[in-house]
Design goal:
The chain contains 13 helices and two strands; from the N terminus they run H-H-H-H-H-H-H-H-H-H-E-E-H-H-H. By secondary structure, it is mostly helical. The N and C termini lie far apart (77 Å). Bound molecules: benzoyl coenzyme A. Benzoyl coenzyme A binds next to helix 2, helix 6 and helix 9. The site of benzoyl coenzyme A has 29 residues, from helix 2, helix 6 and helix 9.
Length: 335
């Protein structure tokens, strides 16, 4: 039997000495700590810890990818919208999502990672995007459920991000949240109309809510004790509330709205807790959540195939834009 190799045990004596920090880094860290303690904003040219930059690029780019992939379930329904007015509204909403993706990629770029790189990570299947967009949109009522529940969950999650410590992210979120509010209302209104329509239409609305309720609650991320990034992100004032706190708050909001809709939330354990003054929801299927973010959800393969196809289709646009930019540069150079 081969002798087991002895691993060196780090002790105070043989630890590698910590790399020396430059005076600039020390001053930068002090500035950063003060800004965070004062709850002010870090801007792109400010010194920031490498881990803070990395966390922001991760979260902002995942968010941008979610907006772009999130266009697909609704875009599928544009040609099948029940009226010209509904079609126009849905088209505007899907275009808004593209805009959100662009603001967010721009915010991520201010941290030094080019958009091409972020996009390639998505195309290579290395980047995450929100679990919710791996569920199918089966009926017109799903446009209502997506607007009401998915955009509703997005607002509950994203309003606190308007106060994120990184300036470009917080500012992008302000505009996104305004547009998300319109999205949520249009979804609510679709469901309201269906739930006051024929018994079949009401059933279609209920069926959509039944399918989107649990996946919408999962949008807030894993439970707090299984959320590796929350603690640090909250200490840096990127996240202001934990995943569970926001999920709880969202459930409290939709309980009353469901009553107005005349629809029921598919949650046998839903109850109001007098002591905490909060609505308690059922335990979610976290195995399903893990499967979906690992690429094994109902529509992951379809969503990624469509995204890659759209990227290919857009090659000529990128080439034309590049050629135009080069021409403009030459003109400036010649002047
Ligand atoms: N789906 O430590 P945790 C929209 C990942 S777009 C997939 O709690 P964090 C809309 C998480 O990334 C909605 N993955 O992470 C668009 C992490 O993985 P990594 C998108 C998820 O970052 C079109 C790991 O699980 N909204 O509204 O502290 C039409 C551990 O989680 C999910 C945003 O992106 C998930 N649901 O908290 C309509 C908002 N949850 O990176 C609507 C901005 C977690 O360590 N993002 N993961 O490999 C956030 O607020 C936070 O990133 C999250 C997660 C609350 C989502």
């Amino acid at each position: 039997m081969a002798a087991a190799k002895l691993q060196p045990v780090p002790t105070a004596g043989n630890e590698a000495p910590a790399p020396e920090r430059s005076a600039e880094d020390i001053a930068g860290q002090a500035y950063f700590d003060r800004i965070i303690a004062e709850d002010s904003r870090i801007e792109p040219k400010d010194w920031m810890p490498a881990a803070y930059r990395k966390t922001l690029v991760r979260q902002i780019s995942q968010h941008a990818h979610s907006e772009i992939i999130g266009m697909q379930p609704e875009a599928n329904w544009i040609t099948r919208a029940p009226s010209l007015k509904r079609k126009a509204i849905l088209m505007a909403k899907v275009q808004d999502e593209a805009g959100h993706g662009l603001y967010l990629y721009s915010a991520a770029e201010t941290l030094g990672t080019p958009r091409d790189v972020l996009n390639q990570q998505l195309l290579d299947g290395k980047a995450k995007y929100s679990s919710i967009f791996n569920y199918p949109a089966r009926s017109w009522a799903d446009m209502g459920a997506i607007g009401w529940l998915v955009d509703g969950a997005a607002i509950a999650n994203q309003v606190p991000l308007c106060r994120a410590s990184y300036g470009p992210y917080g500012r992008a979120m302000v505009r996104i949240c305004k547009e998300e509010s319109f999205h949520q209302r249009q979804g609510f209104e679709i469901l309201l109309e269906l739930s006051h329509g024929t018994p079949e239409q009401k059933q279609m609305a209920q069926d959509a809510v039944d399918r989107f309720y649990a996946p919408a609650l999962m949008m807030f991320g894993p439970p707090d004790d299984d959320s590796p990034n929350s603690k640090q992100s909250m200490a840096w004032n990127i996240k202001r509330f934990s995943n569970d706190e926001l999920r709880q708050r969202f459930v409290g909001m939709i309980v009353e709205q469901a009553k107005v809709l005349g629809l029921t939330l598919p949650d046998p354990e839903l109850r109001f807790d007098e002591e905490t003054g909060q609505w308690i929801h059922m335990e979610l299927d976290w195995q399903e959540f893990k499967d979906v973010i690992a690429g094994r959800g109902p529509c992951n393969a379809q969503r990624m195939a469509r995204r890659r196809e759209a990227h290919e289709d857009g090659t000529w646009v990128r080439e034309a834009a590049r050629a135009y930019a080069e021409k403009q540069l030459k003109k400036v150079g010649a002047a």
